[in-house]
Structure formats: C-alpha cells, structure tokens
C-alpha cells in the first residue's frame, strides 16, 4: 500500500469519526471551521489561518497542516503555554483530525514590535519530501 493511500484512509477515518461522534458535520472546510471557532472564542484584533499542507508529503487538497497567527488582548498576562492551551481548548475537535498546528500568538504590543510579521514555517524534512 502506498503512503498516499494509507494517508487518505487515515484522514478519511478521522473525518468520519469526527462527524459521527461530535455531531458537527464537515459542511465547511477545516480551515473555515478553525476560523469560525477562533472568531467566536477569542476577541482577535488580527488573525490568519494558513493551510500549509502543500508544504508536506500529503495528497493535493489536504487539510492536515495549519499555521495560526493570532493577536489578542486576551493573551496579555498569560505565558506562551497558557495562550496555546487557550487556543487548543477551542480547537479540540479539529486537533483530533489534523496532523500539525503551528501557533504564533501575540498581544497587540508584541505584534506591533514584530511589525506585523510572523515567522515562516520551515520546509518539511520528512515523508520523502
């Protein structure tokens, strides 16, 4: 069995289980679901959700690797781990079906100091890519 077939079967199974046990149908793309949950759960002054699956050894059109850049006053006074736990709690269902999530969380002051630029993700080193 090729790695592509294996990945498609695993991703399909995860999606099936997600829709069956959460009662949350996949009418939207995973990216859209992530965007919606973030907008509903955190008061964000800026956010960007990037599907980086094409940078990895997965079938075309996959939604398995995401990068989130989030700016919120709600991150003020929280350390990085607490900020990431806050996001992970919001996206717990999606984390069951995606493979990787890169989080870049900032307060408005930190974001201004970075001049509105989050770091680029590294190139994929695994899976034959």
Summed up:
The protein has 129 residues and is of the alpha+beta class. 41% of the residues lie in helices and 16% in strands.
Please write out the topology.
Elements lengths: L2 H20 L7 H12 L4 E6 L13 E7 L8 H11 L1 H4 L4 E7 L1 H6 L16
What can you tell me about this protein's structure?
By secondary structure, the chain is of the alpha+beta class. It has a single domain, classed as BolA-like (GMP Synthetase, Chain A, domain 3, 2-Layer Sandwich). It contains five helices and three strands. It has a three-stranded mixed sheet with strand order 1-2-3. The model has no long low-confidence stretch (mean pLDDT 85).
Which features characterize this protein?
single chain; alpha+beta; GMP Synthetase, Chain A, domain 3; 3-stranded mixed beta sheet; globular
Shape: globular
SSE string: HHEEHHEH
CATH topology description: GMP Synthetase, Chain A, domain 3
Q: How many alpha or pi helices?
A: 5
In total, how many beta strands? 3
Kindly estimate the percentage of residues that lie in beta strands according to DSSP: 15-25%
Cα distance spanning the termini? 18 Å
| Number of individual domains | 1
Biggest sheet statistics: 3 strands, mixed
CATH architecture: 2-Layer Sandwich
Helix content: 40-55%
CATH class: Alpha Beta
Unreliable spans: none
CATH superfamily annotation: BolA-like
Radius of gyration: 16 Å
Structural class: alpha+beta
Strand order of the largest sheet: 1-2-3
- Average pLDDT metric: 85
């Amino acid at each position: 069995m090729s790695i592509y077939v294996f990945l498609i079967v695993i991703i399909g199974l995860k999606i099936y289980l997600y829709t069956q046990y959460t009662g949350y149908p996949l009418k939207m793309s995973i990216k859209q679901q992530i965007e919606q949950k973030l907008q509903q759960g955190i008061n964000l002054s800026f956010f960007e959700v990037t599907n980086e699956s094409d940078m990895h050894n997965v079938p075309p059109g996959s939604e398995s690797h995401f990068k989130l850049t989030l700016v919120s006053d709600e991150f003020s006074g929280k350390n990085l781990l607490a900020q990431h736990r806050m996001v992970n709690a919001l996206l717990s269902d999606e984390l069951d079906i995606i493979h990787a999530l890169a989080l870049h969380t900032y307060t408005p002051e930190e974001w201004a100091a970075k001049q509105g630029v989050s770091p680029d993700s590294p190139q994929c080193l695994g899976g034959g890519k």
